Amino acid sequence: MNNIPSTTRHLLIVNILAFIATWVFQRSGIDLTALCGLHFFMASDFHVYQFLTYMFLHGSFTHILFNMFALWMFGSIIERVWGPKKFLFYYIICGFGAGIVQELVQFADYTMQGLAAYQYVSVNGVQITTENYINLWTTIGASGAVYGILLAFGMLFPNERMFIIPIPIPIKAKWLIIGYFVIELVSAMSGPGDGIAHMAHLGGMIFGFLLIRYWRKHPGQNQAYGQDFFNHMKQTFNNRQQTKQRQWVDDPEPQRETDEEYNARMHKKQEEIDAILDKIRKSGYDSLSKEEKKKLFDQSRPS
Question: Which of 86, 147, 189, 256 would suit a FRET pair with 275, their CA atoms being 20 to 30 Å apart?
Fold first, then answer.
């Protein structure tokens, strides 16, 4: 583990701990997948934080095994090229992108099925409410972020030859990544049923491609973009804290109005209202100025 770059190592540890926690909590009757998995945004169980938490949960041992193997194998290389913070920024963006694409796909499915018009749906012969049905649409796994890492490897080392079982000959990385993309696209187009979020995988690759293209078009930001992002977040937090402290010092509690001052102010206000009402009786409402109408309106509002 000491030979694995820091961010890749920490991501591996967090994912493994989350997998163990899911199993432990499940034995206690607590479903972490229901709490932290990414739900359809129109479902009652959806929360914004799930765009982050979903990518650290996995549904089975094989699920986490293949994702963590790819993260270790390719993530270690990418992190050594980019540095830890830029790599983490890229990883999170690809995970977010995968979640966003999955949400869009689910919304299209929700629309095409016309679920908004039904209170109940039939699932395997059992009738349940539409609300409970869409709450079942939950996505988990680091696959979107991992596919983004595969895409990054293919773009950084396009001509690197790789042996992939069971293919007996070495394949250049660029052709391997294109092959993965095509397989996921065909699988997604063939229709649901295998329980795999193929469009989320494509979403991670698409967002990764766009981010790398952006960095290449802005080479001045290329090496420090992730660092700048986290520095900006930290600076924004510090500025807010300093602003709160200045407001606490510079804006002391206002002095309370005495009874005499309050009575004098209310008496003056009542005289102004009486004068406006007299003007209405003599010349009608249209004779009032804009300021007088506003005063009368403000007086009539409940406090």
Answer: 256
Tell how far CA 171 is from the center of its chain: 35
Which residues pair with residue 39 across a beta bridge? 138
Number of Cβ atoms within 10 Å of the Cβ of 5: 18
- Enter the tokens of residue 38: 């990414």
Show the DSSP H helices in 120-256 as ranges. 130-135, 143-156, 173-189, 198-217, 225-250
Quote the Cα angle for 43-47-50, to 5°: 110
Q: How far is CA 158 from the centre of its chain?
A: 30
Contacts 24+ apart (CB under 8 A), 239-248: none
Rounded Cα gap, residues 247 and 124, in angstroms: 60
**Longest distance between any two alpha carbons in the chain, whole Å:** 102
Per the confidence metrics, is the pTM higher than 0.85?
no
- pLDDT digit string, tens, across residues 105-120: 999 999 998 988 888 8
pLDDT tens digit string along 235-250?
Answer: 666 776 676 666 555 5
Instruction: Give which of 153, 163, 146 is closest to 197, Cα–Cα.
Output: 146
The whole-angstrom separation of Cα 255 and Cα 196 is 63
Q: Is the dihedral of CA 266, 267, 270, 276 positive or negative?
A: negative
